[in-house]
Design goal:
alpha/beta; Rossmann fold; 4-stranded parallel β-sheet; 10 helices; 6 strands; globular
């Protein structure tokens, strides 16, 4: 019986090889979801205690964030793009968990965690959730929670607007389309230190819309964590 199980497992691995979404190399039994080579070559951003991160600069004057960190740079054709696209479009939710755990380890010396801190993933519209079967931001938050020991609250925000992809739209068009898309549930965010979690910050319109729905709800503070931040042309 054990022989049959091993044979089936080997055949399955041959037909459906477990490959790295960053380079398509077959993963070894010691590697989880992403190969060690790709993990070492991530375009990571050096973190610090200074309050002048790329995200802070991008959102300056639009929303007040007590802290904002992104793990890596995102450019067309980059390794970060391949990994995030595999998370969002190729049914690889564990990539988000793995990167979230890695990000959490990097954040430990810098992120100011309070007793009332909660991780709030940017929500998907129910229709898009039904198509994808999971929310990529929730998967990232799940990984962050495992390393930072902060609870994830998935129903603090609700998304009521549904749009086609915004990736080709300029900053003003994104904001006009998305500014009224989100609803915050006061009983979930009241008196809390909110740590928003998203996969990527491009123009910042989504983050701004989420934050503005909570600014007048007696939240203690709002922080932001994103796996990636897009290139400087979004400034």
């Amino acid at each position: 019986m054990k022989f049959i199980s091993q044979t089936f497992s080997g055949l399955y691995s041959f037909v459906y090889p477990n490959t790295c979404p960053g380079c398509n190399r077959s993963l070894t039994k010691w590697e989880k979801n992403i190969c060690n080579i790709c993990l070492k070559n991530l375009p990571v951003i050096a973190l610090s205690n200074e309050n002048d991160s790329i995200l802070q600069t991008r959102l300056m004057g639009r929303v007040y964030l007590t802290q904002a960190y992104s793990m890596m740079r995102f450019y067309k054709g980059s390794l970060s793009q391949k990994l995030i696209h595999s998370l969002k479009y190729r049914n690889k939710p564990l990539v988000g968990v793995e990167l979230g755990k890695m990000f959490g380890e990097q954040l430990k010396p810098f992120l100011q965690i309070q007793e009332n801190s909660i991780l709030v993933p940017v929500p998907l519209h129910p229709h898009k959730y039904q198509i994808r079967a999971y929310n990529q931001s929730e998967k990232i938050a799940e990984g962050l929670s495992q390393t930072l020991n902060i609870p994830v609250v998935t129903d603090a925000l609700e998304r009521k607007g549904f749009h086609v992809s915004q990736t080709q739209k300029h900053k003003e068009a994104r904001w006009l389309e998305i500014k009224n898309d989100f609803i915050a549930h006061k009983e979930k965010v009241n008196d809390r230190d909110i740590i928003l979690v998203d996969d990527i910050c491009t123009s910042g319109a989504t983050i701004e819309a989420c934050a503005k729905t909570m600014e007048n709800m007696n939240v203690k503070s709002i922080k932001l964590l994103t796996l990636a931040v897009a290139g400087d042309h979004y400034q």
